[in-house]
Design goal:
heterodimer, A: mainly beta, seven-stranded mixed β-sheet, 0% helix, globular, B: mainly beta, five-stranded antiparallel β-sheet
């Protein structure tokens, strides 16, 4: 069974640009969460989508947005990039039953903003 | 404010030297406490879920315990392959918080042969 797949794995952008990251969850998983990981702040929750609807949102500015498609694939977008947006962006999916916090993470997309 | 604090930040052990990692938490209505392992360049990998004080879970050389204010991850006779960053996370109460976890900063464990 394939795991959570994130693309691209690495990317470099400059300040002011925008970026779109993609996540394909494990087959059958309908919930997708996004996290930002930095050395200073650790793992921080961005948002969660379930059945194409945003269910939860973390404490990030509106420049961070996401969406989910009918096949459960998800994308997140960051507009007007800032140097501080450099981070590892992790996507996670979870089983459709129960309200479990057992997440299955992808390997992440490492974003560098110059 | 919901918060998770892990200690120590880093831990260096000799192979076979048992120790414990600590996770202290402050959360409004704990729904679950989770331990994850993260290897360099990889996403976190789920290890355990604990729901109530007194609960214990074991997996190979790892044993997780939970009290009302903290959790411990005990590592018995560790091997070099146990080297990783161990992350603790909590799921707070109130509505459907499924995928929203609050993570600690992690403990970087290094086990030398």
């Amino acid at each position: 069974k394939a795991g959570v797949t994130q693309t691209p794995r690495y990317l470099i952008k400059t300040r002011g640009q925008q970026v779109t990251l993609s996540c394909s969850p494990i087959s059958g998983h309908r919930s997708v969460s996004w996290y930002q990981q930095t050395p200073g702040q650790g793992l921080q929750f961005l948002f969660e989508y379930f059945s194409e609807t945003q269910r939860n949102k973390g404490n990030f500015p509106g420049r961070f947005s996401g969406r989910q498609f009918s096949n459960s694939r998800s994308e997140m977008n960051v507009s007007t990039l800032e140097l501080g947006d450099s981070a590892l962006y992790l996507c996670a999916s979870r089983r459709p039953t129960g309200n479990t916090g057992e997440l299955f993470f992808g390997e992440g997309s490492r974003l560098t903003v110059l | 404010e919901d918060q998770v604090t892990q200690s120590p930040e880093a831990l260096r052990l000799q192979e076979g030297e048992s120790s414990s990692l600590n996770c202290s938490y402050t959360v409004s209505g704990l729904r679950g406490l989770f331990w994850y392992r993260q290897d360099p360049g990889k996403g976190p990998e789920f290890l355990f879920t604990l729901y109530s004080a007194g609960e214990e879970k074991e997996k190979e050389r790892l044993k997780a315990t939970l009290t009302k204010k903290e959790s411990f991850l005990h590592i018995t006779a560790p091997k070099p392959e146990d080297s990783a960053t161990y992350l603790c996370a909590v799921q707070a109460g109130g509505g459907n918080q499924g995928g929203k976890l609050i993570f600690g900063q992690g403990t970087e464990l290094s086990v030398k042969p």
